[in-house]
Write a structure and sequence with these properties.
Blueprint: H1 24-30, H2 33-36, H3 40-56, H4 62-81, H5 93-105, H6 118-154, E1 159-164, E2 167-173, H7 174-199, E3 201-202, H8 218-224, E4 229-230, H9 234-239, H10 242-268, E5 276-277, H11 296-319, H12 334-357, E6 359-360, H13 362-369, H14 376-387, H15 391-407, H16 417-423, H17 430-434, H18 437-443, H19 452-466
Parallel strand pairs: 3-4
Antiparallel strand pairs: 1-2, 5-6
The chain binds arginine.
């Protein structure tokens, strides 16, 4: 206990009313520096905006504002250089930085926290961090879309079995299948863009919870930090974490999309399917079975979705019972968000890597595309179109043709005209043509259909959307 600070309570920044410092366990449960040191850049950016405003409004002198600004830049340089003395006793990133500022510039450092609280400070820092993370993710998602579009173009006419219930249903093109993911990812990006636009209001200046009596300029700090303006209710500004929840909700949905793709990769590169191959770059070997090449990257993309869904759940549970305004519960907001965003970024990048890495075995896809009477619907459609039958009757007759094919151990597409006419005399020679997989996919030209011509149109549309300049 020093002479100038009669009862520092072990903490020079808030220790005035404390006689002793926190116990070791209190420090262990309370300190967040190991996690929130990742907010250093955002914390300094927020402080620079705040002190510029304090100087401009005359709340602190020009000289003090300048000293604080220069000091904050020195602190940032130390952090960037990796020689900042992070301290658990100083709890969190906000107090670590302020304390270091005091070491560097002395008395003016104590004026930085005028008209501010750690409550609006942390809300601001965290929002800036989430906003940056969403921006980085958007670029990664666009890259993954481009990878899918490239494969879709190359395989616009590559025929594969389309499944429902994982049973062979109708032939589709591999390009069409890839573009399904491009569409999902576009909606994921849209969700993140919506979340970003909604979160882009500044909490800074809400102070502890009630606002401040100092004549601050919240619009100035908001604009300096790239926000559209200040958040309009001080209680809401320090209490709200729905911006993080919304980002996690979008992340959880995106992760389920990537997980479904990863599951398909696992299926496609299995020996019974053999639709794709992955190089050594995205597989690992087995320590006992020398022939194995395991799709571990895909499996881990599939599995990491669990963390992200879990993170959303974690933060929902943390927040659901917290009364307004700030409670320390809210310090538990960062670990799930940091973890989920890192996991999602890795999932997106690994997925793009696999899409670019995979070799497509068009012959294996084609061979399986016609197995399981996958063009039966085309015969039913022929009966509707050429023989004028109601679809329900055509469906029934086609079912009988499938039964006849099975009795002969054949595919419906391999039945002769005589065999088909034995099922129904109205079946004519042109029906044989619609039973091929190529004719089947080529005929599906409805908007959103699998026809190669449609896939090529969609490839062009996506390219224009993804790279408007080119
Ligand atoms: N480390 C805290 C957090 O992450 C910062 C805010 C602390 N505010 C307070 N009044 N104790 O939430």
């Amino acid at each position: 206990m020093s002479a100038q600070k009669p009862s520092s309570g072990g903490n020079a920044l808030w220790g005035g009313r404390f006689a002793t410092g926190p116990g070791a366990l209190m420090e262990e449960i309370n300190a967040s520096i190991d996690v929130d040191k990742r907010l250093a850049d955002q914390d300094i950016a927020g402080s620079l905006a705040h002190v510029a405003m304090l100087g401009a409004t005359g709340i602190v002198s020009e000289a003090d504002a300048r000293a604080i600004t220069e000091g904050l830049k020195k602190v940032k340089a130390e952090i960037d250089a990796g020689d900042f003395p992070f301290s658990r006793a100083l709890e969190d990133i906000h107090m670590n930085i302020e304390s270091r500022l005091k070491d560097l510039i002395g008395e003016p450092a104590g004026r930085l926290h005028t008209a501010r609280s750690r409550n609006d400070q942390v809300a601001t820092d965290f929002k800036l961090w989430v906003r940056d993370a969403l921006d980085a993710l958007d670029a990664e998602l666009a890259d993954l879309q481009r990878a899918f579009v490239d494969v879709a173009e190359e395989h616009a006419a590559t025929v594969m079995p389309g499944f429902t219930h994982l049973q062979s249903a109708q032939p589709v093109t591999f390009g069409h299948h890839c573009l399904a993911y491009v569409a999902m990812l576009a909606r994921d990006r849209g969700r993140f863009a919506d979340a970003r636009a909604r979160m882009n209001e500044s909490p800074l200046g809400a102070a502890a919870l009630a606002g401040t009596a100092f004549p601050i300029d919240r619009t100035m700090t908001a604009l300096a930090l790239g926000f559209d303006g200040p958040q309009r209710n001080s209680l809401d500004a320090v209490s709200a974490r729905d911006f993080a929840l919304e980002a996690l909700a979008g992340a959880a949905i995106c992760a389920t999309h990537l997980s479904r793709f990863a599951e398909e990769v696992v299926i496609w590169c299995s020996a019974p399917f053999g639709f794709i191959g992955l190089s050594d770059a995205f597989t690992t070997g087995s320590s006992i079975m020398p022939q194995k090449k395991n799709p571990d990257a895909a499996e881990l993309v599939r599995a990491k979705s669990g963390r992200i869904i879990g993170a959303l759940n974690t933060l929902l549970v943390v927040m659901k019972g917290v009364p307004l305004a700030y409670s320390k519960d809210m310090q538990e907001d960062k670990p799930p968000v940091f973890d989920a965003m890192a996991a999602l970024s890795l999932m997106v990048r690994a997925s793009a890597g696999m899409v670019r890495d995979m070799t497509v075995n068009a012959d294996a896809m084609r061979a399986l595309a016609s197995k399981g009477h996958t063009t039966a619907t085309d015969l039913a459609d022929w009966l509707v179109r050429e023989a004028g039958l109601p679809f329900r009757d055509a469906h029934h007759i086609t079912g009988a043709a499938v039964r006849a094919a099975e009795a002969k151990g054949k595919e419906i597409a391999d039945l002769t005209l005589e065999e088909l006419q034995a099922v129904d005399a109205r079946i004519g020679p042109s029906a044989l043509e619609v039973l091929t997989v190529d004719r089947s996919v080529a005929s599906r030209v409805s908007i959103g259909g699998t026809a190669p011509s449609r896939v090529r149109e969609e490839v062009a549309r996506w390219r224009a959307l993804l790279d408007p300049a080119s």
